[in-house]
Design brief:
With 292 residues, this protein is of the alpha/beta class. The chain contains 10 helices and 9 strands.
């Protein structure tokens, strides 16, 4: 019998997670009343032959009874039943943006602000995060990324990667990414913008990569940057960090930053250090849209 408790912050992606688990063959029950949790688990175990994979959603919509969840979980585990707790989280600013985008109100906000509702929710369910087997930070995850992480854990049975690394290129004229943890300025590298034939291309094109990387300065900088990042990541994992955004910036976010970001991504892709990885070129198309 495989039992998953799916919980976490409202707006962190539980709906997507439930859909993914359903696709993986789980019988999903969302917002189950807490007083029924233990009886439901016992019933599911009795019918294990028919329902051998079950996911139950628990969150603050359960009201004051959320406080009894820990005691109920202790009783379930004392009976010898194994439970995997998946906690979905995201940064406050991202949660607020998602609520504004969907025009929904936070279940605990009432007449207060969304921020107040989020703060209260964190307080009420912090114990679930503390005892969770898997904490997935969806701050920088696209829907497909969250689905992929869940499939790796519950379908492919890969080792859970608590740290998710995003390598991002950007243009300084469009602003430094607010969620960046590490920012590197590569505007000192050779600039293909001033070569007429190269200007329309991007760092995803081989001629741009060759132009930027033919410089000894570029090569030395890249090697030093690789060394530093590969040195830092294991320490971030040990510290318990769940998200790391490495931002590489040039003037327009089209040539040099894209080239270096791709090189860093490929280097990290070849490592097996227990972290998830994605790449994003935030501003690569902006000059093109402006006709430059």
């Amino acid at each position: 019998m495989k039992l998953i408790i799916l919980t976490g912050m409202s707006g962190a992606g539980k709906h997507t997670a439930f859909k993914t688990l359903e696709d993986l063959g789980y019988n999903c029950v969302d917002n189950l009343p807490i007083p029924l949790l233990k009886s439901f688990v016992e019933l599911a175990w009795k019918n294990e032959a028919e329902t051998n994979k079950v996911a139950v959603g628990i969150d603050v919509r359960s009201g004051e009874s959320i406080e009894t969840v820990e005691e109920t979980l202790n009783e379930i585990e004392a009976d010898g039943k194994e439970v995997d707790i998946v906690f979905l989280d995201a940064e406050d600013e991202v949660l607020v943006a998602r609520y504004k985008e969907t025009r929904r109100s936070h279940p605990l906000a009432m007449k207060e602000s969304i921020y107040d509702g989020i703060a209260l929710e964190r307080q009420q369910i912090s114990f679930l995060k503390d005892r969770a087997d898997y904490v997935i930070d969806t701050t920088h995850l696209l829907t497909k990324d969250l689905k992929a992480e869940l499939r790796k854990i519950f379908l492919e049975h890969q080792t859970f990667k608590s740290l998710f690394v995003t390598v991002m290129s950007f243009g300084y004229k469009y602003g430094i990414p607010q969620d960046a943890d590490l920012v590197f300025d590569v505007r000192f590298l050779p600039n293909p913008y001033y070569v007429t034939d190269l200007r329309p291309m991007t760092g995803n094109d081989q001629p741009i990569r060759d132009y930027v990387m033919k410089s000894d300065v570029s090569k030395e900088f890249l090697e030093k940057l690789k060394d530093m990042i590969t040195f830092l990541i294991p320490s971030y994992i040990e510290e318990g960090k769940t998200q790391l955004v490495i931002a590489i910036g040039c003037t327009g976010g089209k040539h040099r930053s894209v080239t270096i970001a791709n090189e860093i991504y490929q280097n990290l892709l070849g490592l097996d250090e227990g972290f998830g990885l994605r790449i994003e070129h935030r501003d690569i198309e902006k000059d093109r849209k402006r006709g430059k």
